[in-house]
What we know:
By secondary structure, the protein is mostly helical. Helix content is 62%, strand content 5%. The protein has ten helices and six strands. It has a two-stranded antiparallel ribbon with strand order 1-2. Strands 3-4 form a two-stranded antiparallel sheet. It has a two-stranded antiparallel ribbon with strand order 5-6. Helix 1 (2-35) packs antiparallel against helix 2 (43-66), helix 1 (2-35) packs antiparallel against helix 9 (219-267) and helix 2 (43-66) runs antiparallel to helix 3.
Amino acid sequence: MRSSNHLIGLMNFLTFLASIPILGGGIWLSSRANSTDCMKFLQWPLIIIGVAIMVVSLAGFAGACYRNTFLMYLYLWAMFFIIAILIGFIIFAYAVTDKGSGRPVLNRAYSEYYLQDYTGWLEERVTTQSYWSKISSCVRDSHVCGKMGRSVNGIPETADMFNLRKLSPIESGCCKPPTACGYIYGNETYWTPGTGLVGADPDCARWSNDQEQLCYNCDSCKAGVLASLKKSWRKVSVINIVILIFLVIMYVVACAAFRHNKRMDNDEPYGETRMEKAQPSRIHF
């Protein structure tokens, strides 16, 4: 029985360690929410799940060390619900980021993003005017576009050099006009209308060389934010799937060890009878 308690304690310690990547993923999303993705609610489910796993694993560890049946029951039931919630979160993350990706542009290394390629709950939330005003302000305050400037030997990069850059979704969608608009490159965030007609894309009229405006109100910027969120969520979801598989294995082993403990408790008498069983008398009447 002692070995079973040690096994349960080990499983809980490993579960505690497994919560660290989940919590780290939530903190990473939180840092991106403040600087890049600008969606400040997506990280909280992960952070809550990570903290819950930490607390529950500590309860299970204490229950194994002190053979506290209540704590062990609490651990097993709580971990069951946490695993179910984590499965639901992973499915939700993949469902809301299922559609949409960048479109390649001729003679360009970067992709461009179109809002019509994205549908569903996340797209509706991002494009809501009251919410988008906060997101666009966050993108502006992060100075993503202002950091795009590059120079070679003190000389600003040319249009050909810019076309070879692999821009992030937000840089491509928010910091320059769509290529179809026909604007002429001045620098990374300054573009002038060409000699021909401006393209029919509504974003062509929304573009502004005002560094406080740029394309922050463009549909391409909203699509860029959605694409950035998709990349972030997919990265975190891969880690969550690995941790989920590990947690399920740990949970099954802990259940088996707990059942073994219960059988041992039911089969072994305590007190005087147990001492007599351990050291039976040689004198029989």
